[in-house]
Amino acid sequence: MKKCPYCFTELDDRASICSGCRKRVFRKDHSGVAKKHSGYVVPAILIIAITMFGGLFLTLSKKPPPIDEVTFKKSVEDSLKKIRAKHKENSIKKDIVGGSYNKDVFNTQKRLKSLGYNTGTIDGLWGEKTEKVIKQFQLDKKLPATGNLNKDTMENLEIAWKIKISDHSVIADDISDSTDRCLEEGRALLIKHFNITKEEYEQINYEASKKQWSMPEKSERYKPEYKYLYGKRKEKYFYLDRYSCYELGFRFGRCVAKSMKGIKCEPNTDFVMPERCNHKAETDKGMKAGLKSVF
């Protein structure tokens, strides 16, 4: 005889269902009480475990497909390139965070300033202003605006900087020609303005001719960013092409009349008459009007 573990009803040793509570029971233990029936949980767990371990065994015992040597080498090289690029970016970032001088940051600040961005002091040190300007440059070039000095940003910045110098080189030659100066004088001013060497200037010009970068119009030379190319004589030539011969004659005649009276001429009236207006009736008419305006 055995007892039901749920209601303790006396049962036959061969009984598997209690006659009192109608629950399933197992064989009795040493105390004479039957063991509780655990249902189908244990068998289900066993089946799942056997299935999982069996699948794992089959996977491990299966031989891997042969690896193509060329594909393997290419994948390794790609992985190494990504790691090196990440390492370079992290090393720059480490110097930046440390507040130490960084050559890449210095060049970036210098080039961004030459492109018209307000970088503040060019000191090679990372700051909020530098990060903000880099982010603005990235937005202008339709790059991810992270504010980080990554490879794509540096490459785009270098290209934009070279194009800028190439444009200024064209304008420098144009201004030198229009003001009857030697071409080397304008180029020397350009080299000084961008703080580059003569070799760098020649290399950039060579790349420009090879890649056929933009060619600015002659009218571009009147922009304020090209003022440095006029040197000390900028006031004599800056306005000439904007005015007619009559207007230039009027300004010239007015300056002559003031000089005769001992009065200093205005900056925009003291200039050398361009060849296109020499010995023209329109110019003479303007000069007479200019003289009359003073006397």
Number of helices: 10
Average pLDDT number: 77
Q: How many domains, in number, for the residues?
A: 4
As residue ranges, the low-confidence spans are 233-238
Name the overall outline: rod-shaped
Gap between N and C termini: 145 Å
* Radius of gyration from CA coordinates: 44 Å
Widest β-sheet, arrangement of strands: 1-2
The residue fraction in helices comes out at 55-70%
Q: Count the E strands.
A: 4
Features:
mainly alpha; single chain; 295 residues; 4 strands; 10 helices; two-stranded antiparallel ribbon; two-stranded antiparallel sheet
Detailed description of the structure:
The protein has 295 residues and is mainly α. The chain folds into four domains: 1-62, no CATH class; 69-149, no CATH class; 157-236; 239-294, no CATH class. It is built from ten helices and four strands, in the order ββββαααααααααα. It has helices spanning 41-61, 69-98, 103-114, 128-140, 151-178, 183-194, 198-211, 234-237, 245-260, 281-294; strands at 2-3, 10-11, 25-28, 34-36. Strands 1-2 form a two-stranded antiparallel sheet. Strands 3-4 form a two-stranded antiparallel sheet. The radius of gyration is 44 Å and the shape is rod-shaped. The model is unreliable at 233-238 (pLDDT under 50).
Short recap of the structure:
The protein is mainly alpha-helical.
List the helices and strands and how they pair.
Blueprint: E1 2-3, E2 10-11, E3 25-28, E4 34-36, H1 41-61, H2 69-98, H3 103-114, H4 128-140, H5 151-178, H6 183-194, H7 198-211, H8 234-237, H9 245-260, H10 281-294
Helix pairs in contact: 3-5, 5-6, 5-7, 9-10
